[in-house]
């Protein structure tokens, strides 16, 4: 690391993605600031040389001090989804603080093809956050992560146990990507990206729910069938399963996007930035077979 190295800041460093990005940056010898609302979670990163700062996204006044001196900033989208409007307010406050303190390049972890939605929700949050970033006039990179393969480690065991995998995807595929591959792409983009660019961070292939059901069956040794529902039946089923309304809305929105083909995009972003081809969904699930056990 040289004296002229840019100062790189990562928000949400206590979470899975943010923490891994910080670890990769430290491996690369970067000058890293890691922020979290709970800085006690970051003691190991401090021991490795990261500067630790407290940042409370519900307290906009705290953000300017947290971001001061950073040259390039990765805004990891927050998980404040249960209260409508809260996450968007958090993101807008962070974007405004970054612009005010003189951050030169702002990167953001978004989602595939975000769109404004009258009822709000996850895609609406991402759309308006992206708009706020563009309006700053800063250089920016929008990292639109495909759905995480890691999510199947949560839903997969349920499908194996019941023998049924439900979706409203209408047979369309998704370019599932691992969180690890996203972290590698994000860290490299924070180090090197220039100008203004939208980057879809995807896995290597489109995978349908029929293919996932077959893969879960193969790995578990138990029959799993994909059941393709209409959108309303999916919503009713998710609600009947006791999922919180915001989770029901989020999953339904992702299935609607998938049915419309928005999740079928394939790019070379992981290899371009991360330096290696993205892991296939099969390889990821095989490596995590134990997590699928029921």
Automatic annotation (TrEMBL):
Domain NAD(P)-binding: from-to ranges: 12-190
Gene3D superfamilies in UniProt: NAD(P)-binding Rossmann-like Domain (3.40.50.720), UDP-galactose 4-epimerase, domain 1 (3.90.25.10)
PANTHER family, per database record: NMRA-LIKE DOMAIN-CONTAINING PROTEIN, QUINONE OXIDOREDUCTASE 2
Entry protein name: NAD(P)-dependent oxidoreductase
